[in-house]
């Protein structure tokens, strides 16, 4: 539960307690017990040595100690984990959250005069390959564990487990992939969908809040959301980068389609994503 920075602080606190051989008489014993939680030690009230100078300097130490402990309590309480339920997010080059599964979908895009593209052309953060055909990878949360529910806002996630978490509406995008000698393939765990010679993926979207109001999500690692009906959703403590992938679908008797609530799609095959990384101003 403790990260490296908090662990260092904890060591500092232990050091302070180690150097403190008494509890000042003015201090409530309950306060002292909180301080001792780190050491699990009981010490009696009053100076051992009887030197007033030591007593004074240690009072200061105790004030510092209280501040450190308050910081630890706040830091623990404000650590945000991913909402409960099963769902999926596009996989960034930085990898998936700890304990999530992963999988990839290879789509054989149009062979003739292919117009695939990715934005930005250089410096995108997707895990996969984006040339004349597309390898797109996902992070999948396959257990219901988690912390609370997804916040109101304007964004989409990919669906997993047959239904959306509370507050989302569902929909899908269907890509008519290359008909001729199709080489579609898949590996690992994927979002809800149909992954054969063509590709159908289900999503969960919501527009019950402003994209411009910060929502709270874990900030320990970069991640993606899908863009919905507004700009990229603002996330507290994270910088936003809009990125997109265009997959050229079958030219001959194309029957690509979409329905319900799904990420914003322009020019028929360009899907818009939002990449988040720890804010450089923090
Ligand atoms: Ca192809
Ligand atoms: Ca096809
Ligand atoms: Ca074709
Ligand atoms: Ca096409």
How would you characterize the overall build of this protein?
Residues 82-276 form the Apextrin C-terminal domain. InterPro entries: ApeC (IPR031569). This protein has helices spanning 4-18, 29-36, 52-78, and strands at residues 87-90, 101-107, 117-119, 128-130, 134-141, 154-159, 169-175, 185-188, 193-195, 199-207, 223-226, 238-246, 257-260, 265-266, 270-278. It has 282 residues and is an alpha+beta fold. Helix 1 runs antiparallel to helix 3. It binds calcium ion (4 copies). Residues 110, 248-249, 251 line the site of one calcium ion. One calcium ion binds at residues 176-177, 179, 197-198, 250.
Assess the beta-strand content as a share of residues.
25-35%
Distance between the termini: 22 Å
The number of helical elements comes to: 3
Proportion in helices: 10-25%
Unreliable residue stretches: 1-56, 72-77
Shape: elongated
Query: Largest sheet at a glance?
Result: 10 strands, antiparallel
Q: Compounds present?
A: calcium ion
What gyration radius follows from the Cα positions, in whole Å? 26 Å
Query: How would you classify the helix and strand content by structural class?
Result: alpha+beta
Domain Apextrin C-terminal: 82-276
Protein name: Apextrin C-terminal domain-containing protein
Pfam families: ApeC
């Amino acid at each position: 539960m403790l990260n490296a920075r908090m662990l260092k602080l904890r060591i500092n606190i232990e050091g302070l307690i180690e150097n403190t051989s008494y509890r000042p008489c003015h201090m409530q014993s309950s306060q002292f017990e909180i301080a001792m939680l780190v050491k699990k030690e009981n010490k009696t009230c009053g100076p051992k040595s009887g030197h007033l100078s030591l007593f004074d300097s240690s009072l200061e130490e105790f004030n510092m100690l209280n501040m450190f402990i308050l910081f630890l309590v706040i830091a623990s309480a404000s650590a945000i984990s991913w909402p409960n339920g099963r769902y999926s997010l596009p996989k960034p080059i930085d990898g998936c959250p700890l304990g999530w599964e992963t999988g990839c979908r290879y789509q054989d895009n149009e062979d003739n005069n292919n117009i695939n593209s990715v934005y930005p052309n250089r410096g995108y953060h997707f895990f996969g390959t984006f040339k004349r055909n597309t390898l797109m990878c996902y992070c999948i949360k396959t257990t219901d564990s988690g912390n609370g529910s997804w916040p109101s806002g304007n964004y989409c996630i990919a669906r997993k487990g047959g239904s959306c978490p509370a507050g989302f509406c569902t929909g899908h995008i269907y890509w008519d992939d290359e008909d001729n000698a199709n080489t579609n393939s898949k590996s690992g765990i994927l979002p809800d969908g149909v992954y054969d010679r063509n590709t159908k993926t289900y999503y969960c979207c919501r527009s019950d809040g402003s994209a411009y109001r910060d929502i709270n999500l874990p900030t320990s690692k970069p991640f993606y959301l899908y863009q919905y009906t507004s700009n990229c959703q603002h996330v507290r403590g994270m910088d936003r980068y809009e990125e997109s992938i265009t997959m050229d679908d079958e030219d001959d008797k194309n029957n690509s389609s979409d329905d319900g609530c799904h990420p914003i799609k322009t020019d028929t095959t360009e899907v818009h994503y939002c990449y988040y990384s720890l804010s450089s101003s923090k």
